[in-house]
Amino acid sequence: MTWQLFVFMMINGLSQGMLLFIIASGLSLVFGVLRVINFAHGSIYMIGAFLAYSLSTILSGQSLIGFLILLMVVPPVIAILGLALEVTLFRRVYREEHLLQLLLTYALVLILDDLVRVIWGGEPRSVARPELLAGSVDIFGMALPSYNVFILVVGPMIAIGLWLLLYRTRTGNIIRAAVSFPDTLGALGVNVSWVMTSTFMLGCWLAGFGGVLTAGLSNIDLGIGMQTIIECFAVVVIGGLGSVGGALLGSLIIGTGLTFFQLPFGRWALVFPYALMALVLIIRPWGFFGKPER
Amino acid sequence: MNDQTYPSRSGWIAGIIVTVILFVLPVFLGNLGKTGEYWIWVSTEMIIMALFAMSLNLILGFGGMVSFGHAAFFGVGAYTVALLMKKADFPLYLALPAAPMVAAVTAAFIGWFCVRLSGLYFSILTLAFGQLLFMIVFQWYTFTGGDDGLHGVPRPEILGPINYYWLCLIIFMVCFLVIRMIVNSSFGLTIKTIRENLDRAKFVGINVRRYQLLNFVIAGAFAGLSGGMLCELNRFAQTEFLHWSKSAEPILASLVGGMYSLAGPAIGSSVLIFLKIFLQQVHRSMVEIWAIFLGVLLLIVVLFAPQGLVGLYQNIFHKSRS
């Protein structure tokens, strides 16, 4: 393998990983605070992607501004959808057993996925990249697809933003306290149920953001929700349930792994996330950064 | 929680009546021509999926282990029958019994790892193994036909639609009685004890993992049998049989029917299939939104009737019992 090919694949793998991180970190955050594994996270992400498509046809923009508008408008809309779901449905099952929670989110998968099919139909769609991001950039004398480089810039910004939010602000302190000691937090006069709602909204915002980025990267179809949620599970399991740092590591491993294994193994590379996920669960069920449960 | 699985005298009578009706049903349907044949096919599928749902309920309802990879064994059973009959020219009477055996071996391998985990981690590991198997079948074109599946599984001449229905019904009845025997045996009681209180079960000296593994293997075997039966009914096996969304089907059936009862999952599964076909008959476009309908139904059950249909029935008719 020449080093040009290596760098090229690395950029490709890392950008895929970063995209996966943006989506999976939302799932992980929500699990950390709400203790609910949200099967519907993939469907929410898919709605974000299709919403971006619809909006892009209205904006008719290959302009950078149009794309930035998508990134500004779609994620908050998805967050509001999350607000509605949390307040009307999720809130009712926090004290129920795991199975009922899982089934509630699975019911949402059935409903939301079918709604997407009814609204947008089955054909693959995509969002035209703005001209500035459609070409390639020269780095070290190599032409790299600029959209992937763009994701590589945005991804770490999201990661740093999340880290600052969680570890450098009062809001972050409250969210982390809600993970460990929700009752104590409530006794200190914090509205825990509102913390849960906001965390869920943040998770959906991230899913929506990932959706917009995906719509520009590749074709989107009805299968991406189901496919992505399983990949997110793999990421979150590898990194540790509820750990955002772990989600970053897991995403990068899965993203680069998928890209590099494609060279020797072809389509069999797709087996890799599941194999790694099973392996981690067998050896270290709580993942790299998680904590074993009592 | 009501674990009463010994039927009362009225239960026996109801059971016998239902059995007789089920046996006579195809004769009646056979006289209806094309629609009748279609409904015999639907009824056969209902019986098979009822067995699949009951097999899952052994670990889900009675064992308290939420598996999201149960379709793996269903699919393994289906592919066993398809491969043996298509590629090795096995007759059905050898291929069908092979399905639960191969599924049991698979379940023993996967279960050996899974029972070491509990709760959510158990669920995710079963999901991971299920998807792993799905991916392997999906990618291995030369052996499994990949996403084309395996079509044209031969059917013995004497097994027309009605005869195959009867064969499935007899297998189902035998399996029902065997599962009932398992649930009511000391093994079944131990499994329920583990579900109710894992730590106490350990303290009284039960080898929890061994019991859970055995239960997992038994459930896998029954799932494999039902998979093989469906493969012969449709005369094809496809990757979708192993996908995790297929694993969700018996879970939904168990939830709708009622998890802590023996017949609940079978009833739930039949009700769901019937509803789907019924909606299809009412209007073709209704099938388009079947998933939405199912999702809403599921939401209602989760939020308002987590004990399912059997629970509702018990609440209405036996209020004093609980």
User: What is the name of the CATH class of chain A?
Assistant: Mainly Alpha
What name is given to the CATH topology of chain B?
ABC transporter involved in vitamin B12 uptake, BtuC
Helix content of chain A: over 70%
The end-to-end span of chain A amounts to 47 Å
What would CATH call the architecture of chain B? Orthogonal Bundle
The spatial strand order of the largest sheet of chain B comes to 1-2
What is the string of SSEs of chain A from the N terminus onward?
HHHHHEEHHHHHHH
Number of domains of chain A: 1
Assembly state here?
A: heterodimer
Number of strands of chain B: 2
Report what the structure shows.
The complex is a heterodimer of chains A (294) and B (322). Chain A is mainly α and 294 residues long. Chain A has a single domain, classed as ABC transporter involved in vitamin B12 uptake, BtuC (Orthogonal Bundle). Chain A is 74% helix and 3% strand. Chain A is built from twelve helices and two strands, in the order H-H-H-H-H-E-E-H-H-H-H-H-H-H. A two-stranded antiparallel sheet of chain A has the order 1-2. In chain A, a hairpin with a 2-residue loop joins strand 1 and strand 2. In chain A, helix 2 packs parallel to helix 4 and helix 2 packs across helix 10. The longest helix of chain A is centred in the first third of the chain and has 32 residues. The termini of chain A are far apart. Chain B is mostly helical and 322 residues long. Chain B has a single domain, classed as ABC transporter involved in vitamin B12 uptake, BtuC. Helices cover 75% and strands 1% of the residues of chain B. A two-stranded antiparallel ribbon of chain B has the order 1-2. In chain B, helix 2 packs across helix 11, helix 7 packs across helix 8 and helix 8 crosses helix 10. The longest helix of chain B is centred in the first third of the chain and has 29 residues. The chains are: A mainly alpha (294), B mainly alpha (322). The interface between A and B is large, with 41 and 38 residues.
